[in-house]
Amino acid sequence: MAKVERKGTLSEERLRTFLREMLLIRRFEEKVEERFRAGELPGFLHVAIGQEAVAVGVCQALDDGDVFASTHRAHGHTLARGTHPNAVMAELYGKLEGCSHGYGGSMHLYDIERGNLGANAVVGGGLPAITGAALAFKLRGEPRVALAFFGDGATNIGTFHESLNLAQLWQVPAVFVCENNHWAESTPAHQQLPIEDLTKRAAAFGMHSITVDGQDVEAVYRAAGRALKHARDGKGPVFLLANTYRLVGHYVGDPQVYRDKEEFRETRETQDPIDHLRDKLGVSEAEFEELDREVHELVEASVEFAKAGTDPKPEDALKNVYA
Amino acid sequence: MPELSYREAVRDALSHAMREDDDVFIMGEDIAEMGGSMGVTAGMLDEFGPDRVRNTPISEMAIVGAGIGAAIQGMRPVVEVMYEDFTTLAMEQIVNQAAKHRSMSGGQLKVPLTIRTQGGAGWSPGAQHAQQLEGWFVHVPGLKVVFASTPTDVRGLLWSAIYDDNPVMFFEHRTLYGIKEEVPDDLEPIPIGKARVHREGEDVTVVATGRLVHEALAAAQEAEGEGVSVEVFDPRTLQPLDEDGLVASVKKTNRCVVAHEAVTRMGFGAEIAAVVQEKAFDWLDAPIERVGAKFAPLPFAPVMEDYVVPDAADVLEAIRRTVGR
User: Does the distance separating the beta carbons of A166 and B104 come in below 8 Å?
Assistant: First the structure.
């Protein structure tokens, strides 16, 4: 079925699944912001509002057995890969039932069963291990792909360049997904990137690249499918550039003093990937409300699940330091 | 019993593991045709081929990180970082990634990665090719740290490091590569976390690592002529540390000298001294003496290098100081 879909148009049913997945991330993130502001969540948080189409489009294109590394903005990727909202929310509450059993938190969501090798709080920190995981797949002759998510800001850090160089040199089955949201925390592109087209960075290594509108989930899904196939077929790694928008602050509570208010308002109005797909599918108000109610209940239930979760014992801190 | 050099002993452990297990492979800069900058992997390319004896670009972050990724997928990579000084380039991957995946994932991940590296002064390498940085890594929960001083130990401990399910920083000393000794016919794994007493004594315990084990043995020989019986204790693994063995030795001799080539300040000896005073304070008859490099980047000119780096004479002086109190 997947093969047919990749050639032609995706079925409406499939696209509705994408809409639901994106809406789940959106409502989850909104709930996270709300609970954080209520003082219930320790630490600090980065939500992926605006970037849902990249998470869903890419994760829907992954095969069983594929692995990925995420970033500090990890809730969307994790949910999109199928980790239950209960397990993600419980992690944000620091509970044993969380997907990292309370050891990781928002920036260290793991779910090995689903190939989530971990979100990373160090920008670019997860890229070398993706090259290494892909090397293992190649050495073992396994038809698997390792994929890294990272932002435009990460293309300035050494791990990005070293990892892409090594991946291309060794022709390993890896896909590097750059979520270009045009901001490195508070620093705009023009203050951190001397070039506009980031695929030039991949081209410098001779790496194949694909650019896609990151607000169009169907386009992302197709592009990711092509990238994954290229890598899986042994044709080498791919740089997938998804141009997207962060429709919120860098962290929850970020006043965004650095962002032009009028431009931000316009971006929010015109670049919402959920609106885009809703319009494309012609989803009626009633249908949307029904869908919204469904995901809202799931999110509410995840909060209840997390609050009722088990607090780790203080001394559990000393477990899992060594295998 | 075959006689092996320290260099050959490292190669022997690597080759044994690679013959037995397809999941073991090595990668690093210049390790293939050239056989590594220290000649440790010479000849291995011919036996195992370029996939498993993998030459890399000069790219420490990516090499170590790729090792992490392959290890997470269940392989047992051994990464060679040409000089300890260059581990600084991979520090983020070692400290933030390799050491922490196990804990951050709540126990879901294992990282069975071995990072071999070497250093050591005595040949005028200057300030960026001979540092002894092993102490840094002991400060990071999640890493194991090994520093072997003899061919037998380096062989048995490297085997254990490869088969440990945790990231292991494996330190070799440049000036020891040529030393030879008879080693057991069959490779005998040496458990990580178990010290070795090289020489038993009654009056003072010298806790030494790496090259200083040999300097301490020479000093002990001298001291014997002066009527002082010295026990030379090599922890071999710095993390985990054989605290029981260490404390038992000091409780027997009642005096302790720590000796390493690394800079004295914040060196591993500081931790040894802390453990000893914590667990054997009442048994100590004298303050713990420390021997290490003076507090300066390693200078080039041989006379200055020699002045900074400790040797047997420094250990002997420390022994004399402690027994004289």
Answer: no
Task: Map out the domains of chain B as residue ranges.
Answer: 3-182, 197-323
Structurally, chain A folds into a number of domains equal to 1
Chain A residues within an 8 Å CB radius of B18: none
Q: Exposure string (b/e) for A121-154, b if CB count within 10 Å is 16 or more?
A: bbbbbbbbbbbbbbbbbbbeeeebbbbbbbbbbb
CA dist B53 and B31 (Å) reads: 7
The secondary element (H helix, E strand) that includes residue A39 is none
- Check CB contact of B142 with chain A, cutoff 8 Å: yes
pLDDT at B114 over 60: yes
Whether the Cβ atoms of residue A62 and residue A115 lie closer than 8 Å to each other: yes
Supply the residues of B annotated as catalytic.
60, 129
Query: pLDDT tens, B44-76?
Result: 999 999 999 999 999 999 999 999 999 999 999
**Percent of chain B having pLDDT more than 90?**
99
Are B61 and A128 inside 8 Å of each other by CB? Answer: yes
- CATH architecture of the domain with residue range B197-323: 3-Layer(aba) Sandwich (3.40)
The alpha-helical segments, DSSP class H, found in A271-317 are: 273-281, 285-307
CA distance B96 to B91: 8
Per-residue pLDDT reduced to its tens digit, A288-316: 999 999 999 999 999 999 999 999 999 99
In this complex, which of A104, A112, A132 lies closest to B68 when CB atoms are compared? Answer: A132
Chain B positions touching A159 (Cβ under 8 A) are 61-62, 65, 92-93
Mean pLDDT (whole number) for B67-89: 98
Q: 81-120 in B: which are within 8 Å (CB) of A? A: 92-93, 96-97, 101-112
Residue B89 tokens, joined: 């380039």
**CATH number of the structural domain B3-182:** 3.40.50.970
- CB of A158 within 8 Å of a chain B CB? The answer is yes
For A140, the domain range is: 2-173+217-222+235-240+249-309
* Minimal Cβ distance to A321: which of B57, B93, B142: B142
Task: Cite the beta strand spans of chain B per DSSP E.
Answer: 3-5, 24-28, 53-55, 76-81, 114-119, 144-147, 168-173, 180-182, 196-199, 204-208, 230-234, 237-239, 256-263, 289-293
Place A8 in a pLDDT band, splitting at 50, 70 and 90. Answer: low
* Chain A touched by B79 (CB under 8 Å): no
Contact A159 B62 (CB under 8 A): yes
* Residue indicated by tokens 């020989």: B221
